[in-house]
């Protein structure tokens, strides 16, 4: 195991600037009203840079630049755009470590996750949409002998995108890749908790794109993000509703029939609630264990959870890092206190973690297992931290009813040695994604309700031409 040096420290693979302005029209420009805000690292709690605080004037300037570049970019061929996306993917791969350290320092997540999951998925995303747009076709319908209808996919023009803080670089890729592949210009507004790492990415790929095709406006949601999202100057694209993150994981009794590799894998699946510090809507934050094995399985799962390594996020052996912001830390701790007041039993964790030394000021929470009733708020509401609420169920119908008794179920996991039972449970559970005998806490590109072709369509419109002969 190794530990990367912090950005800017001796031997580090990346450095942050002291200040980041907006990236508009291919260059950095200061905020119209001169405001900046500080950006602390969750690793130590110390400020490491400051970022321009965007307002309506900055949003409009970015939109001006995007509209100025949109027509030219739209007229490039799909093959040209695909080549650019492949080059972006190559740049990310060539600077994988630098980007990973940059994101870890700003978001608090373990560098191993960024190196092995987030950034490889980002690379795959750009290459996937490069392939999708190369393979895209229009359509033709013969209306009658002398009349033919042609259908062409065309870009929407300018799209505005808000990047969430829990997967800053991966989500930026998922916003940029389809929009650029479709031929649109883009204005991004990073989350105010994690704006700087996106600028590290932009600095690596800016020369690959014409000025104005990608613009980044920093700032707070109410001052910049909401204005961008509501602007009549950006095209509307389908947005999947986010019901929140109370995904469930179900363990049927046959899981514990033998103490073998499958059982060990199931215990590992249980600990997936702590991946990305629980800051993901598909992290399984509700655990359902069938009554005959409940006590024994929970004891083993608790032991496995306590063995998960929490430590310095830049250490490649660390599995659980820091919460992204002080606000998120306080929210998680408030829910832990609420759970105690509701009568939940803390099986392990349940407190802020002091990792000592320079990490004492960081935003760390011990991975926590709460036992209680499914009607408790800690079961029903999104905590977005390394917390799983566990309860028991009696039979198949009870399990399905309990899993579906939430407005916040994005995904679900099912564990059983009985393939037929697992299949029936997966079909009955009301979630967009159901994993069987495994768990991916990351919503994978192309694995879910939509694939690359469907998403590409969201960023385009169809031009229909009726041609008479």
Automatic annotation (TrEMBL):
GO molecular function: oxidoreductase activity, acting on the aldehyde or oxo group of donors, NAD or NADP as acceptor
Entry keyword annotation includes Protease: no
InterPro entries: Ald_DH/histidinol_DH (IPR016161), Ald_DH_C (IPR016163), Ald_DH_N (IPR016162), Aldehyde_DH_dom (IPR015590)
Sorted UniProt keywords: Oxidoreductase
Highest rank taxon of the organism: Bacteria
Stretches assigned to the Aldehyde dehydrogenase domain: 38-235, 243-464
Gene3D superfamilies associated with the record: Aldehyde Dehydrogenase, Chain A, domain 1 (3.40.605.10), Aldehyde Dehydrogenase, Chain A, domain 2 (3.40.309.10)
Pfam families: Aldedh
Family of this protein: Belongs to the aldehyde dehydrogenase family.
PANTHER family in the record: ALDEHYDE DEHYDROGENASE B-RELATED
UniProt protein name: Aldehyde dehydrogenase
């Amino acid at each position: 195991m190794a530990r990367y040096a912090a950005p800017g420290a001796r031997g580090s693979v990346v450095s942050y600037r002291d200040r980041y302005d907006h990236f508009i029209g291919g260059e950095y420009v200061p905020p119209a009203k001169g405001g900046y805000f500080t950006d602390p690292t969750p690793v130590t709690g110390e400020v490491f840079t400051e970022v321009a605080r965007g307002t309506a004037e900055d949003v409009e300037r970015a939109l001006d630049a995007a509209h100025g570049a949109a027509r030219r970019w739209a007229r490039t061929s799909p093959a040209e755009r695909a080549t650019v996306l492949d080059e972006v993917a190559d740049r990310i791969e060539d600077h994988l470590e630098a980007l990973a350290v940059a994101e870890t320092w700003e978001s608090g997540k373990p560098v191993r996750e960024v190196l092995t999951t987030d950034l490889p998925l980002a690379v795959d995303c750009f290459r996937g949409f490069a392939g999708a747009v190369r393979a895209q076709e229009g359509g033709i319908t013969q209306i009658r002998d002398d009349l033919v209808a042609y259908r062409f996919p065309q870009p929407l023009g300018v799209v505005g995108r808000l990047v969430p803080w829990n997967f800053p670089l991966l989500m930026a890729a998922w916003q940029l890749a389809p929009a650029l592949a479709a031929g649109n210009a883009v204005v991004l507004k990073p989350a105010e908790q994690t704006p700087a790492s996106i600028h590290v990415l932009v600095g690596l790929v800016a020369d690959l794109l014409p000025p104005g095709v990608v613009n980044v406006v920093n700032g707070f949601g109410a001052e910049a993000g909401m204005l961008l999202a509501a602007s009549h100057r950006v095209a509307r694209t389908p947005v999947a509703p986010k019901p929140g993150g109370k995904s469930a994981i179900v363990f049927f009794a046959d899981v514990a029939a033998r103490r073998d590799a499958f059982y060990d894998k199931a215990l590992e699946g249980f600990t997936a609630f702590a991946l990305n510090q629980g800051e993901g809507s598909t992290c399984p934050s509700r655990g359902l264990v069938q009554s005959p094995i409940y006590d024994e399985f929970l004891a083993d799962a608790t032991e496995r959870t306590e063995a998960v390594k929490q430590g310095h996020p830049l250490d490649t052996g660390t599995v659980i890092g820091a919460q992204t912001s002080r606000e998120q830390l306080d929210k998680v701790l408030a829910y832990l206190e609420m759970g105690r007041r509701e009568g939940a039993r803390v099986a392990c964790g349940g407190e802020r973690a002091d990792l000592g030394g320079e990490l004492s000021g960081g935003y760390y929470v011990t991975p926590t297992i709460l036992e209680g009733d499914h009607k408790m708020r800690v079961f029903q509401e999104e905590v977005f931290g390394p917390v799983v609420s566990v309860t028991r169920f009696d039979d198949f119908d009870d399990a399905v009813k309990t899993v579906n008794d939430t407005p916040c179920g994005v995904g679900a996991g099912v564990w059983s040695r009985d393939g037929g039972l697992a299949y029936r449970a997966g079909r009955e559970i009301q979630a967009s994604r159901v994993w069987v005998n495994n768990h991916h806490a990351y919503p994978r590109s192309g694995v879910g309700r939509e694939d690359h072709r469907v998403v590409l369509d969201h960023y385009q419109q169809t031009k229909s031409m009726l041609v008479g002969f």
